[in-house]
Write a structure and sequence with these properties.
The protein is of the alpha/beta class. The protein is built from 10 helices and 8 strands.
Length: 225
C-alpha cells in the first residue's frame, strides 16, 4: 500500500520546489491529517469554517490552515483568529466581513480573489469586471486588515486538457493584468492558486504557485459537498 507520505513525496517530485502544496483535507479525519503532518506537510486546505475550526483546535499549532471553499460572511468569525490564507474571496461584502473580523483579532488576513474561469456555470468566482470594481472601490481602499496576495480559480471538470490549459492561461492573464493595474510595487501580490488532483500538472506548467490537492493524497472523498 502507498502511504500518504509517499503520495505527497510523489506529487512534490513532479513540481518545482517553488510551487507550494495545499493538502486538501476536507472531510478527512484528524488521524489522516496527522499522518500527512508527520510526513512533513504543513499547509492544509478546508472548505467548511466549523470543520476547520474544530481541526485547528485539536491538531498541531504550526499547521497553516488555508480556506478554499465558498465562505459565508457569517462564518468568517470562526476562522479569523488563525486562518493563514483565504483562497476564495468572491465579493466585496465577504472581504469587508473578513476585514472586520481580522481587525477584532488584531491581524492582517491574506486573501486571494477567486475568479470564474471555467466554462461551467456552477463554479463560484468573480468576473474580471467585478474584480476591477472591487479593487477600485473606496470601501476596499479603506480596509486596513486585508492583504490581497493573488488570485485563485478552478478549471472546468473535464478530460479536455486544452480547455483546462486555456482556462489556466486566462487566470494567469488576469493575475498579470491586476498586478500591473493595482499591485505594481506590492511584493505580496504573487500567488496564483490553481490546480487540483486531476489537473495540477497543467496548472504548474502554466505558472501556478499553489496547488490544492485532496483525493490524490487522501483518496476519494467520503462525501461530496
Ligand atoms: C476539494 C477541492 C480541491 C481538491 O480537489 P481534489 O480533486 O480532491 O484534489 C481543490 N480546490 C477546491 C476549491 C476544492 O473544493
Amino acid at each position: 500500500m502507498i502511504t500518504i507520505g509517499e503520495k505527497i513525496a510523489s506529487i512534490k517530485g513532479q513540481m518545482p520546489a517553488s510551487v507550494r502544496l495545499v493538502a486538501v483535507s476536507k472531510t478527512k479525519s484528524p488521524e489522516l491529517i496527522l499522518e500527512a503532518y508527520n510526513a512533513g506537510q504543513r499547509i492544509f486546505g478546508e472548505n467548511k469554517a466549523l470543520e476547520m475550526k474544530d481541526k485547528h483546535e485539536i491538531l498541531p499549532q504550526d499547521i497553516h490552515w488555508h480556506f478554499i471553499g465558498h465562505l459565508q460572511s457569517n462564518k468568517v468569525k470562526y476562522i479569523a483568529p488563525f486562518v493563514k490564507l483565504i483562497h476564495s474571496v468572491d465579493s466585496l461584502k465577504l472581504l469587508s466581513e473578513i476585514n472586520k473580523e481580522a481587525a477584532k483579532n488584531n491581524r492582517i488576513i491574506k486573501c486571494l480573489l477567486q475568479f470564474h474561469i471555467a466554462s461551467e456555470e456552477t463554479k463560484f468566482g468573480l468576473s474580471v469586471e467585478e474584480g476591477y470594481e472591487l479593487l477600485q472601490s473606496e470601501e476596499f481602499k479603506q480596509m486596513g486588515n486585508i492583504r490581497i496576495a493573488g488570485v485563485m480559480g478552478m478549471a472546468t471538470y473535464s478530460f479536455d486538457n486544452e480547455l483546462i490549459r486555456s482556462e489556466f492561461k486566462y487566470l494567469m492573464t488576469i493575475f498579470k493584468n491586476l498586478r500591473y493595474d493595482f499591485f505594481l510595487n506590492d511584493i505580496h501580490f504573487r500567488e496564483v492558486s490553481m490546480g487540483m488532483s486531476g489537473d495540477y500538472q497543467i496548472a504548474v506548467q502554466e505558472g501556478s504557485t499553489l496547488v490544492r490537492i485532496g483525493s490524490s493524497i487522501f483518496g476519494e472523498r467520503e462525501y461530496k459537498k
